[in-house]
Every structure is written in structure tokens, then in C-alpha cells.
Amino acid sequence: MSTKTLSTQSKEIVKASAPVLKEHGEKVTRTFYKNMFEAHPELLNIFNQTHQRKGDQPQALANTLFAAAVHIDRLEELLPAVKQIAHKHRSLNVKPEHYPIVGKYLLEAMREVLGDSPEVEEVIAAWGEAYGIIADVFISVEEDMYKEAEAPSGGWRGFREFTLYKKKPESSVITSFYLKPADGKDIPPFHPGQYISVQVQPENSQYKQMRQYSLSDAPGKDYLRISVKKEESSGVHPDGTVSNYLHEELQEGDPVLLTAPAGDFMLNERSDRPVVFISGGVGMTPLMSMFNQLTGIGSEREITYLHGAKTPAEHAFHTHLGEEAERMGNVQYAVCYEEGNNKNKDRFVKGTGFIDRTFLEENITHSDADIYLCGPGPFMKAVYGMLKEMGVSENQIHFEFFSPGGTLQ
């Protein structure tokens, strides 16, 4: 953590501001982003504009500010959250010089929303002191991550050019993109479950677009693979700007800029306990990296893969998972389709509708298993709740949200 300490007076003022931030935090953060982007449009090359439009990012920042206020005298308790955010920042190539800009417009947004009075100025002064300390923590943690990313053979800092050498449709909505370094040099090792950032600039976009995609294959290959769902897009809600660009415009042989693998959602490879993967839709991508790592090394752990998809046509990697279950005696695989009646009598289809507690109880046979969960927010909340009802402890469940600020509570 930072070697600087917050004055006692400022600490008390920040803690006392927690209820105000809980009430007005999202308005503060929306104002902050609006004003900052107007003054520094170049930062639009970094931030995910879809998350801005949906309100995910402002809400996530508001939650972070509230947590900082509550824990200001015990910042070490925020370290896990700091590291998770720092992974995202490192992957987006956030730099130390960005922090003073953020601090300036965040404090100005507080003043704009809370009003101009001596009491508010006191709060802003205290938060200015606190922000400096928190920013120093992030800068230090992120610098360590930059050094860690560039240390191994093939490692790098910032952006590196890769070439798309293969596009492979995996389902009606998901395509895999195989990427190799343009310089022909090594690819560094990564942890199964991590992600990379992709930077592109579609023709209809004024700014570069950055998106983070999970690596969907095991490490140790001469390529990095991402598997991307083509999101529905419209003029009103252009949520699929990057995914549509990748599916429709990016061609084999085209260059793509990537940042090095990042993220703290990782397979615990030191564990010898049974492992259960539970995914919904495209949430299977980081779990496929974990699954392929275990099966690729011939792990003797009991492996169960459970997946929920809307239809068979939208289900990626079904053939591969089924073949691995046939090949390896320690692999169990079961699917639940929201729509469809299993006319082809696929033996791996063991449920219809949404994954429910019965499906989980029938297919999770080890009470001590490590469980990895990923998918849409409502899916994850539902499955998490059912696992807890089944007596699964929190420390057995590991999960990843694709959108900022997700919670299972």
C-alpha cells in the first residue's frame, strides 16, 4: 500500500461522506465521465463506451468510491479489489499520467453535484488528499503488473501487433479468432482464465475501441485464441461495435493490437480436488482455457463441465467437449438447453429450460470440488444461489463478470 498516510481529520471527513456517496455517487460519476470526456476526448480511446452508455462503468466507480469511504482507515481490506481493477487498467494500458486527470474531474464532479458550500469544500479537500493516496496505490500495483507482463520471454508492455491467421465459426453466434505475433517471436505464458485487450478502429468509429476478451484455449500454443459472440447492434444501442467489426470486417491476415494477458480469474493448478466448470452462453470462454489446460496435460482430477445455452445452434465447443468426455474417463459433461427437445438424442443433453438445482445436484457429485462459474449476470446469480443452498462454501466458488461492477449478492 502507499507509504503516505491520510490525516486523521481527512479520514473522518471521508468516512462521514459515505452516506452522501451512497445516495449521490452514481450522479457524481456520470457527471465526472461526461466532463472528463468533453475536456479530454483522447481518453475515449481507452474507455469502453458501451459500458458508459449502459451505466455499468459509472455505477461500478460509484460503488468503488463508497467502498473507499467506508474502508478509508483500513485500505488493506480493499487490496483484492484494487488488484482486480489494476489488472483491467494494465490491460487497457492506463498510465500514471492519467491519474491526475481523473482526480481533477472527479473532485470537480463532486462539487458540481453536491453544491458549492464550505461543508462541501471540506469534503472535497479531504477526498483530494485521499485520492492522492489511492492513486499512488494503483500506480504502484499497476507498475508491478507491467513489469511482470514484460518479464518472460515474449512478454511485452503496452500494445503489440498480432496477425489474425484463422477465423473459425464455433456456433451461429460465436467465432474463434486465432492470433499470432506479427514479429514471429514468442508468446509469453499466461494463466488459464485470463484475458487480453483488443484495440481496433472500425471505419464508423471516431475513436479507437478497446475490448477485453477471455483467452479461450490453453497456454503453451503458438497462438492466442479469443472466441467472441457477435452482439446484436442497432443505431440506438450500438453495443456490438467491436464484436461486429471482428466478425464482419476483420479478415485473415489483418493486423490487430493486443495487450498482454491479464486478470485474476485463474485456474488453481496446484489443487488436486475435483473441478466443476459451470458456464452460460459465451461465458464458457475462460472456462474452456481452464478445461483445455487440464485435459491437455492429462490431469487426473475429476473434471465436470456443465453448460447452459439458449439453443444447440448457439452452443460453441459442444463437439470438442463431448469428444474429451468420450476420450477421458475422468471427464463428465452435461448440457441444458433453454429451447429444444433433443430430437437427436444427444447423450450429453441432460436438461431443458434453465439450469436448475436438480440439474446441478444430478451432475455435481463431489461436495469438495473447486467450482468455476461464468456467464450472464442473472445466470451467475441464480447458479450461485443454488450452489449455496446445496451447501457449497463460498471459498469453493470462483467467478468472473464480463461487465464492471457485477455482484452475486
TrEMBL record:
Chain segments carrying region Reductase: 154-409
Recorded domain comment: Consists of two distinct domains; an N-terminal heme-containing oxygen-binding domain and a C-terminal reductase domain with binding sites for FAD and NAD(P)H.
Protein's recorded name: Flavohemoprotein
UniProt site (Involved in heme-bound ligand stabilization and O-O bond activation): Y33
Gene Ontology BP terms: cellular response to nitrosative stress; nitric oxide catabolic process; response to toxic substance
Gene3D superfamilies xrefs: Globins (1.10.490.10), Nucleotide-binding domain of ferredoxin-NADP reductase (FNR) module (3.40.50.80), Translation factors (2.40.30.10)
Function recorded in the entry: Is involved in NO detoxification in an aerobic process, termed nitric oxide dioxygenase (NOD) reaction that utilizes O(2) and NAD(P)H to convert NO to nitrate, which protects the bacterium from various noxious nitrogen compounds. Therefore, plays a central role in the inducible response to nitrosative stress.
Annotated InterPro entries: Cbr1-like_FAD-bd_dom (IPR008333), FAD-bd_FR_type (IPR017927), Flavoprot_Pyr_Nucl_cyt_Rdtase (IPR001709), FNR_nucleotide-bd (IPR039261), Globin (IPR000971), Globin-like_sf (IPR009050), Globin/Proto (IPR012292), Hmp (IPR023950)
Pfam families linked to this entry: FAD_binding_6 (PF00970), Globin (PF00042), NAD_binding_1 (PF00175)
Chain residues that bind heme b: H89
SUPFAM superfamilies: Ferredoxin reductase-like, C-terminal NADP-linked domain, Globin-like, Riboflavin synthase domain-like
Keywords: Detoxification, FAD, Flavoprotein, Heme, Iron, Metal-binding, NAD, NADP, Oxidoreductase, Oxygen transport, Transport
Obligatory cofactor(s): FAD; heme b
Residues involved in FAD binding: Y195, R211, Q212, Y213, S214
UniProt keyword Oxidoreductase present: yes
